[in-house]
Structure formats: structure tokens, C-alpha cells
Write a structure and sequence with these properties.
This protein is mostly helical.
């Protein structure tokens, strides 16, 4: 087994990564909440359906991205805990 660096240096890098993940998640969540809904677009008929469908797909993708960022942040916290640097 070899050591990549001191545990405190690795912990600091992991904390910085976790902070960046959390910031990205907040931005994605904010984008999801500020996205327009299909009902307020004024589009009718097939154009309204297409617009609403596209927004639903965007909402789904932003939700999935937020979930993945949350999971990555949780795994980073687990790594910090295993290093003995959990907060």
C-alpha cells in the first residue's frame, strides 16, 4: 500500500470538491425552480404540447442532475469520514 499524500491534504481537497458539488447542485436546483412551465407560455395546440414536453424533459434532466450531484457530495462526505476528517 502506498500513500498519495497526507490525510489532511486529501481531506482539504475532498472538502473543496464537496463544496463545488454542493454549489453546482444549488445552481441546478435553482434553474429547475426558475424554469417556466408550459401553461404560462401562451402556446396553443401542437406547439404548446411540444413546448410543454420539452420543459418536462428539461425538468426531468435537471432533477436527475441534482440527484447525482447530491449522491457525489454524500460519497465525498463518506470518504472524509473514512479518512477520519468527517464533519
Amino acid at each position: 500500500m502506498f500513500e498519495l499524500g497526507s490525510a489532511s491534504v486529501i481531506a482539504a481537497a475532498l472538502r473543496a470538491s464537496r463544496d463545488e458539488l454542493d454549489l453546482a447542485r444549488r445552481r441546478v436546483t435553482g434553474a429547475r425552480h426558475s424554469a417556466p412551465d408550459g401553461y404560462s407560455s401562451g402556446w396553443l395546440g401542437p406547439a404548446g404540447w411540444a413546448y410543454g414536453h420539452a420543459l418536462a424533459l428539461l425538468d426531468r434532466d435537471l432533477d436527475a442532475a441534482a440527484d447525482l450531484l447530491r449522491a457525489a457530495s454524500d460519497l465525498t462526505s463518506t470518504a472524509l469520514y473514512q479518512l477520519g476528517h468527517g464533519d
